């Protein structure tokens, strides 16, 4: 890949450039290109530019749209019908004229215009839904020179995942000639625009970005403050980390969480800091952070979060009970995929994952199957396994970990069905999760344990006496999030409880941490997102959610 945005950083030698980025970026590429094709967006610089800032209707089209909008109130039914059809055929080019007509004093004009406006807005929403796919395409192809168009598009970001994609796209696309535009966006843009501009400014200005970013370290908008700290850290390390330390010691939980996330993103260290832990434990962690920082120098490399990891899609692949099925939703609640189990009624999809290509991978009784990420959801591959799988997880190497409940086995298998390793466990695995090339996390339902094992099956870490665990996931801060039927608990490495949630959450089968630090829980009535104060952020009503794969 081109290293152009990194040239100025390489001079000061402060960032580590990740080596294995291509595979992460390829996740879902096929589906993104299919979305672009559906909306007739060419996957090149000019096609993307036209999508981000459409040219709008020409003068003649504006006149025609106004003429037809006026005819919506015609005395002749045939003329009213013809005008409606012509406005719909114009699509979004007719939007301004229809919006104006929807405010008409004439009742017939107003009613017809509002009906047309509803359909045009749905068309606009559908087109806007392609924005994240366009942003991911910009990052994959490292398209330069799109900063003006991206800042314009940032005003209509539909989801949190779209904002994260915008930040990476603007960072990739920014050039020195965009510096004045980015400076202006820091003060005049929406909150999302300001954050993206702060993160992208060093890519355009290099070391000169320091002057514009340092004042933002005391900005009232806490998310902008910590975006600026992330951006300026390679240029003004002491000031950036002083801001982060102040935030990690704040009385406000959201501020502690935001500062802690940026610290972890930049350093790869958590040092036991958990924003919602007790004051005493937080104090101990802050001491460790201060000691660690004192041992570093200006040459210690920092990570570049905008270059790492897969591009977020904001999708939730789900396995359901009652009835047995699988589905996929996005952050807006849009349904992208649904599959009823084709096995007998007493069997079900028990685990889900996403393949490197973006295929939806489901573990059913006796098999693991992958469905294409295109709309037809055709079967891409399948391989046989013993019955009673409880979970499936993909490794970065493209293999699959399968937990076999009745057999008390962990298997690693290829997509062709080859068994690469098999480990006998001391109990029935309800969940298995990849941690590293030589570590796997598993929850054992029958022995009420959460364990971490090495490649030989030896237990290297465990928590005993856990209420019968349904799922377990290792968090970025080093803690482990466990779902135990009626309760979700987060344990620290010493097995101590640091956070829990049990507010009317029957049959909590799965739980995971979202990028914003909230927890998403799959339970009997669907999905619930809760913050670390225990308040419900949102809830989706659905049949029982047994497993969640967020990507």
Supply the helix-strand structural class. Answer: alpha+beta
Q: Using only CA atoms, what is the Rg? A: 26 Å
CATH superfamily of the largest domain: TolB, C-terminal domain
Number of extended strands: 26
Strand count, sense and barrel status of the largest sheet are: 4 strands, antiparallel
Unreliable stretches, pLDDT < 50, 5 or more residues?
A: 1-21
CATH class designation of the largest domain:
Mainly Beta
User: What is the number of domains?
Assistant: 3
Gap between N and C termini: 24 Å
CATH architecture of the largest domain: 6 Propeller
- The number of helices is 18
The geometry reads as: globular
CATH topology heading of the largest domain: Neuraminidase
The level of helicity is 25-40%
pLDDT averaged residue by residue: 89
Strand content: 15-25%
Spatial order of the strands in the main sheet? 5-4-3-26
List the helices and strands and how they pair.
Blueprint: H1 7-12, E1 15-16, H2 22-26, H3 29-38, H4 45-52, H5 59-70, H6 77-90, H7 95-101, H8 107-128, H9 131-141, H10 147-153, H11 160-173, H12 179-188, H13 191-205, H14 209-213, H15 222-232, H16 237-248, H17 253-267, H18 279-294, E2 302-303, E3 315-320, E4 325-330, E5 335-340, E6 351-354, E7 360-364, E8 367-371, E9 379-384, E10 389-394, E11 400-404, E12 409-413, E13 419-424, E14 429-436, E15 439-444, E16 449-453, E17 459-463, E18 471-474, E19 480-483, E20 488-491, E21 497-501, E22 510-513, E23 519-523, E24 526-530, E25 536-541, E26 545-550
Parallel strand pairs: 1-2
Antiparallel strand pairs: 3-4, 3-26, 4-5, 6-7, 7-8, 8-9, 10-11, 11-12, 12-13, 14-15, 15-16, 16-17, 18-19, 19-20, 20-21, 22-23, 23-24, 24-25
């Amino acid at each position: 890949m081109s290293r152009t945005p990194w040239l100025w950083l390489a001079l000061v030698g402060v960032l580590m450039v990740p080596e294995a980025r291509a595979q992460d970026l390829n996740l879902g590429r096929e589906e993104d290109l299919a979305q672009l094709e559906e909306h007739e967006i060419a996957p090149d610089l000019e096609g993307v530019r036209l999508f981000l800032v459409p040219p709008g209707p020409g003068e003649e089209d504006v006149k025609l749209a106004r003429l037809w909008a006026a005819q919506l109130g015609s005395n002749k039914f045939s003329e009213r019908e013809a005008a409606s059809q012509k406005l719909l055929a114009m699509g979004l080019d007719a939007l301004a004229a229809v919006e104006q007509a929807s405010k008409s004093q004439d009742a017939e004009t107003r009613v017809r215009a509002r009906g047309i406006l509803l359909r045009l807005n749905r068309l606009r929403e559908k087109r806007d839904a392609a924005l994240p796919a366009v942003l991911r395409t910009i990052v994959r192809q490292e398209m330069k020179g799109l900063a003006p168009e991206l800042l314009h598009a940032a005003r209509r970001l539909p989801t949190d995942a779209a904002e994260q994609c915008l930040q990476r796209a603007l960072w990739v696309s920014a050039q020195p000639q965009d510096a004045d535009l980015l400076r202006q966006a820091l003060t005049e843009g929406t909150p999302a625009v300001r954050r993206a501009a702060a993160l992208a400014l060093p890519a355009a200005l290099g070391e000169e970005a320091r002057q514009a970013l340092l004042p933002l370290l005391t900005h009232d908008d806490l998310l902008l403050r910590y975006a600026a700290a992330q951006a300026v850290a390679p240029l003004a390390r002491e000031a950036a980390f002083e801001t982060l330390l102040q935030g990690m010691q704040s009385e406000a939980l959201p501020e502690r969480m935001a500062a802690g996330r940026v610290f972890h993103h930049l350093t790869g260290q958590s040092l036991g800091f958990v924003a919602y832990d007790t004051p005493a434990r937080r104090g101990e962690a802050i001491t460790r952070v201060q000691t660690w920082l004192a041992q570093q120098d200006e040459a210690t490399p920092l990570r570049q979060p905008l270059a790492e990891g897969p591009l977020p899609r904001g999708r939730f692949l789900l396995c359901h009970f009652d009835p047995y099925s699988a589905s996929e939703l996005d952050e807006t609640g849009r349904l992208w995929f649904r599959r009823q189990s084709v096995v007998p009624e007493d069997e079900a999809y028990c685990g889900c994952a996403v393949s490197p290509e973006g295929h939806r991978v489901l573990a059913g009784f006796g098999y693991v199957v992958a469905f294409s990420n295109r709309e037809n959801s055709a079967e891409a591959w399948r391989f046989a396994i013993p019955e009673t799988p409880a979970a499936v997880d993909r490794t970065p190497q493209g293999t699959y970990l399968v937990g076999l409940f009745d057999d008390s086995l962990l298997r690693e298998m290829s997509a062709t069905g080859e068994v690469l390793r098999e480990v006998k466990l001391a109990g029935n695995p309800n969940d298995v999760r990849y941690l590293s090339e030589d570590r796997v996390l598993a929850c054992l339902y029958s022995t009420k344990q959460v364990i971490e094992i090495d490649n030989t099956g030896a237990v290297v870490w465990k928590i005993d006496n856990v209420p019968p665990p349904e799922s377990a996931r290792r968090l970025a801060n080093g803690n482990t999030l466990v779902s135990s039927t009626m309760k979700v608990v987060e344990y620290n490495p010493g097995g101590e409880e640091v956070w829990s949630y049990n507010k009317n959450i029957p049959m909590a089968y799965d739980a995971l941490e979202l990028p914003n630090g909230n927890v998403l829980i799959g339970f009997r009535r669907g999905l619930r997102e809760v913050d670390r104060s225990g308040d419900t952020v949102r809830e989706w009503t659905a049949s029982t959610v047994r497993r969640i794969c967020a990507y």
